[in-house]
Amino acid sequence: MAKIETGKLNLWYGPFHALKDVDSSFGANRITAIIGPSGCGKSTLLRVFNRMNDLIDGVRTTGKVLVDGEDIFGPNEDLVKLRKKVGMVFQRPNPFPLSIYENIVFGERIHSDSIKRDAIDEILEHSLKSVLLWDELKDKLNEPALRLSLEQKQRLCIARLIAVKPDVLLMDEPCSTLDPQATARIEELMRELKHNYTIIIVTHNMQQAARVSDDTGFMLLGELIEFGKTEQIFTAPHDKGTEDYITGRYG
Ligand SMILES: Nc1ncnc2c1ncn2[C@@H]1O[C@H](COP(=O)(O)OP(=O)(O)O)[C@@H](O)[C@H]1O
Ligand SMILES: [Mg+2]
Questions:
Q1: Whose CA is nearest to atom 16 of ligand 1?
Q2: Which of 70, 102, 129, 195 has the fewest CB atoms inside 10 Å of its own CB, making it the most exposed?
Q3: How far apart are CA 163 and CA 160, in angstroms?
Q4: pLDDT digits (tens, 9 = 90+) for 129-159
């Protein structure tokens, strides 16, 4: 079973039709890249998966979105649970103006009232180890997170998600503020994380999509034009539009 599936998914911002009949299927423990020109609906699609678009006025969504086979627009959907299960990392790392420690345990405190100190410390260590920050930061846990480097901040934001035990990590251009070395290290981290998580990454960086993803979806003007194994998309795309885009011929 797919981890996330959409069927005839449509989304409007007021009168503007931003997603058009999107049928897609995202496999568990895989990295799927969503590529396409600016404004084609990549971020919008990503935000559907944990219903973040609900927070925007005038949004209307139709069609089917299943996470673990469950309709996330169904009447009994628990949004807190959904957003815990499907976490998101953004373009600009956005740690809270709190200590490194507080950044990690913040979500866990929100999601459970009676958690013990030992359990918190365990989560803290596990989360920071998962993003390879533990050795670097274990003696600085009370320092402000805003003092970290951009790369450390982005790793911390990923650790903050991991602390609430998600299944799916949505990453919206997570390396766009990072230099090539830091980008390569985050990509390495993604490969590591996919053993335990399902990752969907939006990227405008074609090389990144080719390097890091198992599957790739190409979007254009709100439509998912082509979806398949990354190797196939980059070597033998079926669609002329996909080919033009990945070879840089897109107008
Ligand atoms: N909150 C919003 N209100 C109205 N239109 C929006 C909103 N967010 C995005 N859009 C429009 O929807 C389209 C898709 O946007 P987006 O998903 O951000 O594209 P991408 O991430 O591929 O650059 C764009 O035309 C954008 O202007
Ligand atoms: Mg975007």
A1: 41
A2: 195
A3: 5
A4: 999 999 999 999 999 999 999 999 999 999 9
